[in-house]
Amino acid sequence: MIGMVEMNRLNEMAVLNEIAMPVLFFQNGEVVWINSRGRDLLNIKSVSDLKERHFLKYLDRKQPEGKSLREIVNHLKGAFSDGKAEKELRVALRIKGLRLEAALKLVPVESEFPESGFVVFDRVRKKEDALLRRKTEHYYGDLFRQVSVPIAICDGMSRVVDINAAFSELFGYSREEVVEKYCYDLIAPPSEKIKLMNVCEEIHNKGIQKRQVELVDKWGKPVHSDFTVHPILENGKIVGTYRIYEVQSDKKRARDEIALQKAYFEGLFNTSTEALVLLTNDDKVVYFNKAFENLFGYQLVDSKGKCINDIVAVGERREEAENISAKALKGKYLSFDTVRYHRDGSPIPVEMVVNPIMNSGELLGIYAVYKDLTEKSRMKKKIEVQSQYFKQLFDKSLDAMAMLDSDQRVMDINRAFVNLFGYEAEECKNKNIDQFIVSKEYIEEAISCNDDIKRGVSVNVETKRKNKAGELIDVEASGNPITVGGKIVGTVVNYRDIRERKHVVGELEEQRAYFKQLFDNSPLGIVMIDTEDRVVDINKGFQSMFGYEMDEARGKDINSLIAPDSRFAEAVRLSSRLISGNTVKFETKRKNKAGELIDVDILAYPVWLKGKQVGGYGIYSDITEKKRAEKEIEFLAYRDGLTGLFNRKVFYDKLRNRMGKLKEGEKLAVCYMDLDGFKNINDSMGHNIGDEILRYVAKNIENSIEKEDVVARMGGDEFVVLTDYGDNEKIASKMEGIIERLDKGLRIFDYSIKISLSIGVAICPQHGNEVEEIIKKADMAMYQAKKSGTRGYLIFTSEMEKRNLYRFKLESRLKMALSNGEIQMHYQPILAMDGTVKGCEALMRWDNPVIGRISPSIFIPIAEDCGEIHQLGAFALNQSLSILKKWKEVCGDDFFMSINLSVKQMERENIVGEIAEGLSKHGLEGKNVCLEITESCSTENIIDLNDKISKLKQMGILISIDDFGTGYSSFRQLRDSYADYVKIDRSFVDGIDERSENRAIVKAIVAMAKSLGAGTIVEGIETETELETMKRFGCDMQQGYFVQAPGCEKIIEAFIKKNCKR
Fold first, then answer.
1. Structure pTM?
2. Rounded CA gap, 495 and 835, in Å?
3. Which end of the chain has fewer beta carbons closer than 10 Å to its terminal beta carbon, N or C?
């Protein structure tokens, strides 16, 4: 046994296992004890793990301080034999391959136990510090300083006498900082001071005291410690204390932990909601908890010592249970789902966990856990159904769907995703979805959405995502976090292709904008009302029409606002029909803000939203002008709008009526009148003056006839009077009265205008019994009167009808003349005044086999009247250009063909294109063609004419004014200076030597033409005298019978070959 004195001292200081360094104790030369530090150093559990037990066997051959092994052994033997206490020696040991230096302390022991002592291993100090301090007063002082337990020695007043190194390490104070200071002031917080003082006082009555206390170190940091106070006695009196501060030692922690674990296990076992059973190693029940009783229906008192398989694993599950037991007995951990049985025999699905209880490789027992899967099984089936439902929903969804993990990596995608983005599942799995379908410009948006989802917030955005081809697709993206146990483990993302919707929405927005513009800018007055007839909105047209601003109208009853009192009941009926879902349209009157009545056309229709009527629209058209026009139209149905006279229709009706009432011997006269030269007046002076003249004529005719006579305007400048015939003298007197009244003329806008009429008279029934026949014959007589230039009237005769019939026959034959080859082109040379050929004028001739040759002055007007002029003109153009191409080769590039264009031809819309096509067809330039335009043609429509001439001149075509000086506005046309040539008419050449006025006119024309840059061509030279006179007057070119009469192609070709100079 260890000496009791030494053991008592060691126990007092609690150092057996708490010494900071490894300690080995030997007795009778054999190692009998090693503290925990030593066992840790040598990696052994107990002394029994050492191969050798005799202490001297562990001495290393190489000893400290240069001593040999023999010297050490001899020293020890001498020390043991002397029996002196506290012998100390530095030695080196080799244990389990480790060389360890140690301080060996001999301990005085009783005589029956020699060769005993402590070996303290110093593994901290370096070799050069290996020797123990020689100044140690005795063995306990050394232990006090080396022990790992913090210790303070205090006097009877609690003042610090000494501290060890462990105290300094724990509390941060050096020895110099604490000696002679009160211990409480150093390490006790105010709340603990009294407690510590009371503990120290209690040692006088109760001896050693131990408490758990809260202390602080030098820097105020809390220190949790077990505080033990040992009294120091001298002659039976307490003169001081040892104060030991244990900071949760390993053993204590282990004990506390075991106690805690035991309490925890017992509580867990008994309070667990899962069925737990503790079994012996042969499957006998030791204990089971309340949950086991509830699950299987057994009581512990009835079940202890019974085999668990006999209780809950009966029938078909017995073999399975025994196999499980066999595996568990081999120390295997098992977990599986199975079925066990209730006491009443009903099966219970359970999850079973079997844990072997082992100790140093030995099976002590088994504990098993039974988890009731009844609800889990039901939930599992439910989850399987839900999972299958979700799987079907996921796979069959028309929207592209992706399942992502918590890092946005793709776990799965559906077929719609493949179709929309072009990626197969293998291409996407485990990739961050944003890396392959989010373009750069949408990265920040995607990050923001991901952040929301990580916070558990579902997101829904309209955005764009790119497909495999890099194309951006409009999608509605929805992301919903997947939460398991309150933790977000992933995301389900839904992408809906909204390209079509965006397109439709865009169209709807466009339509809405269109209808908004239509509403806002429509000239019609539009009002939107609710189902109570209150104004919701009005447009600008409504404001303009009725004078109300939006603020004035909003919320007001539309009928009270604009329906006049006389129409209020009507307006209410309209509203009633509208609210009933009917569309209403009618004309009525409404009042504006000023109270003025307005004629309006109302179209009102209901507005429906989702099958429910929410209001209506009212569209108001201001028909004030329409109403006025209707009255005017009604007037014009009977009257001429310009003169107020009866119109053609009324005149026909009245004539027919009067003719039907004629008695035997009674006669009616129809007097057809036409103004002479009115067209020229109208074109040159303007339509305003023309209208004034027509009104003037109408008024004077009306004032010149009797009350029972009927006067009407037939159209244009034509009037007709129906009067009783009486006799020729009576008619003559009435007609002359009208002519004389108008012959006075009138003055308009500084114009003094003479007016004359040509009048034709037909008598009923003498000249016919039908309305159309009488009017036709009166018109025929008027035409003859105008043609005769009498500026008077003629009564129809049969001779007029014959002449008219002759004209009709010519017209009929003319329509066949071209196809029958009766129309031929002749040509007359145009020469310089020295006789050189410069060009030719194309002239049309008609030779009919029955009638003979018909003059152009006769058939051209007929062709213009019947429409044949266009076919004749096209023929003349084609023939002339064909000849021009051939003769141009004879006479040179400057040779030109002069072609006449009639009034009707110039009116033809595509005349310019037809001429251009002809030039192109024959390969000619515009400069080789001169178009002769009659002066009367140039006064028909000056604006249209100038536009066409401008286009012709752009093609290089020459323009000549034919018969200049014979028309009404020749000087104006010459002033406009579009003409390249002016043709002086034969009427000014004939008799020029005898008539001075003709010479003056020719000189004036030549002078004016030259001043405006135009050339002159004189027509009709028949004598040498006329030629010489025209040379003297300065004319540029001439043509006429004196040099060469018009002839056929063959004759003229021979002439130009003879007279051309190239």
1. 0.38
2. 95
3. C
